[in-house]
Amino acid sequence: MTSIKLLDRETKEIFEEQPPAKNALVWLYKDNLISKIARFLIAYVPFLGWAYAKFQKTPLSKNSIDPFIEKYHVNRSEFLTENFSSFSDFFERRLKASARPIHSDEKKLVSPADGRVKLIEEKTFDVKGKSFSLEKLVNDTKLAKKFENGKILTVRLAPQDYHRLHAPLDGRVLSVKKMKGPLFSVSPIALKKNLSILQENKRVLLEFENYAMVLVGATFVGTIHLKVKEEDEVKKGDEIGHFSFGGSMCVLLLKEGVSVEEDLHFPDGEVLIKMGQPIASL
Questions:
Q1: Alpha helices in the chain, H assignment, sequence order
Q2: Active-site residue 8, yes or no?
Q3: 182-190: average pLDDT
Q4: Which end of the chain is more exposed for a tag (fewer CB within 10 A), N or C?
Q5: Is 105 an annotated catalytic residue?
Q6: Alpha-carbon span 226 to 223, nearest angstrom
């Protein structure tokens, strides 16, 4: 799979997205020995990602901001400021509050991020011999039991997306769990080869009453910044953290009885969504 079928939630248009560095990703996730060695080194050798991310924090990286905005049609009018000190600063940008209105219905969970949504209903299955399970994803038998009869939504953040994360609903942070791991790509090209990447990569879990969020790091995303801790109270739309440079993913686990919005059922691909839009209902 070298392209990704996307449904634009607002226009209802279906189109194909060409992921950044598509050719490199296709090569990297081939089954030959050289590709396997290359992706092992990128995922497991922290220095490689650290060095690349370090450069993105230097003033020299500013030169790539304008070409990136033009290539991926990033909307400048939404930026809170354009005074970026580096590409990493641009990547972690804030938006004007008016750019992402929060759906006001108290029974609706909203998307925690801009991205591409995919509904995963199976909780335990094999993909090309690689076992994926909810229990492995959360690394907690009791917590997996809590969500075993619910739904799983993945929100994939592409490099051009707004990368700050927000609370889907009012509530209290019941627990926070940080899990170490490698940094494989979470592009559909990679996940189609091996969905168990989601339960292997470095990740952070935030548990709430009716849902949980698993923030999954990815290639060149070595740091997941949290603004909340256990027992904190949050309001829907509050910023709870952000990802550093690179693509990344948020996995939403919904308790039984929480229903996913009908227009997010798109088995052929992913649905483009913006932070603050309704994603599920209590």
A1: 22-28, 33-44, 46-56, 65-72, 87-91, 134-138, 141-147, 188-193, 197-200
A2: no
A3: 60
A4: N
A5: no
A6: 10
Q: Rounded to an integer, what is the distance from CA 119 to the centroid of its chain?
A: 13
Number of domains, the chain: 1
**Which residue of the set 86, 88, 111, 114 is catalytic?**
114
Sheet containing 239-243, strands listed edge to edge, beginning at the edge strand earlier in sequence: 164-166, 239-243, 224-226
- What residue type is assigned to position 267 of the chain? P
Residue appearing with tokens 């189609």: 192
User: Which of the residues 88, 185, 196, 248 is marked catalytic?
Assistant: 248
Provide the residue range defining the domain that includes 104. 4-281
CA distances from 270 to 36, 154, 248, 263 (A): 27, 9, 15, 11
248 is catalytic: yes
Which has the minimum average pLDDT: 10-19, 80-89, 141-150, 203-212? 10-19
Record the tokens describing residue 55, joined without a space.
């450069």
Summarised one tens digit per residue, pLDDT across range 61-94 is 999 999 999 988 999 999 999 999 999 899 899 9
